[in-house]
Amino acid sequence: MQGGLSSPGALSHAYVQHPPLRCDIPDIKGLFYDDANRFLVAPTADRILYWKIAASTQSGPPNSDPINEGPILSVRFSLDQKAIGIQRSSHEVEFRNRETGEGCSKKCRADSETILGFFWTDCPTCDVIIIKTSGLDLLVYEPQSNALRLVESKKCSATWYLYTHESRLLLLASGMQCTLFTGYQFSAGGIVKLPKFEMVMSKSEANNKPVLAAADVHIVTVYGRIYCLQLDRVGMALNLYRFYRDAVVQQGTLPVYSSRIAVSAVDNIIMIHQIDAKVVILYDVFMDSYAPISAPLPLLVRGLASNSKQAAQPADQQSSAYGGTLYGEGWNFLIPDLICDAENGLLWKLHLDLEAIAASTSDAPSILEFLQRRKSDLSMVKTLSLAIVRTTILERRPVTLVAKAMDIILDSYSRSMKMVGGAAGVRRTSEQNQQSSFQPVEDSRVVSQEPPGTMIGPVINTDSASGVESGQSQSNSGVEHGIANLAAHVDRSSLNTSSDSDGITNTSRAVSQATSSSQISDATGKRPQVVGEDSQPLASGTSMQHGTHVASVAISPIEMV
What we know:
globular; alpha+beta; 5-stranded antiparallel sheet
């Protein structure tokens, strides 16, 4: 990169921050992740140790709860954190009241079925769902009587399952190749059953039928949309599916360069880790474009003692510096943005290097659009955005280009102010309804800076947005110099440039966009179902927080001038 940024992230677009959370405690029986509560759990013989994973992974003493001795296959806290569920075996799940210490168990018939797992839910009809090879048990947990009450049993065959709390989506795999799927979404809005669908698998040369493993399927939520990524090991491709209420549509195919991959989602960016090659590729599917936004680059470890030299260090030297191995055998990627190094007892959090991404393209409008959709580092977004606009002016770029760059900033600010005003209007209306007509009404000039509240349901309007005011812009001569000397490693002519898209509404649009890139395979003949114009996307439980029109940072006209 000629004249690129001088930051350590200039050779990488993604990094993990050192030091990680250390959980290498003697005598623990493994590490488990409770994604509903964001707890890292480390059980011992008679206690459960757990850490609350916040925005950072700073080390600290764990909390602990006493438990009965016995084998532990998985651990999940209830959503109100008043109970703990512990899977003891493939035929028993134990539930323990944290306040009273009393417990109860749910067992299955050992001769005819096996418990695959369980999870807690905010569904109004049940509290916990147990997944068995013969179907689902929907249960209500009654802490007063310390009992479980069966609400409903759903009969279906399952070999393995996949569930994430972020999406509230449960996928049950069945069939000889485990390519037939039954899906349910259990959310606060109720239960949505998806139509059955089949994932695509290439045939091997020996006419063997490969079996799809649970490790090859990943559920991610970006921009409030739920996607499923399925690795086809024979075809060396990653098939991308999107979920609708009445259909599941294959939207494209991403190339892979490793027989082992992992998937993460950071700030609405999909990261595909090519584990054998030890590189990561970034995708932004905001405009349903499946071209990578960067060249494959290694993952960086920031914050080591040799911080000033780590940009030039190879991966093996970085590994020895922190005492582990990058993309080692013990690495377990936790959706959406965590990495658990079970061998060394470490937990890492993934980050985007926005400065390095901005320095990898000379397309000012596209990178400005990209930055306005980010919210992980608002101060950096504002600094980079202002530096890009300033540089286009100083370089005497065409007036149309400068105007387009300014329009992007102003449009983002306008959307942010509209959403802030909308939230304030709703709040004022609610307050007026609660107050007597003789009471004074608050000054209408007061505008709340809080984003609208989160609504959880099976269907929402993904056009919703929230505005966040960031702090004052900061001058950054290094950033300005770097952007003035941009040198792209890959063709960056199409880094999503519109903020008015809201997903696919029909199959023809999906096909035209998927085939626009030479790296994307035509999947029109592989679509399990066709999406109609009235079909609504399946929304995640966090859709309102990650909506497609979220204005992450607002730069006012005065600041830009």
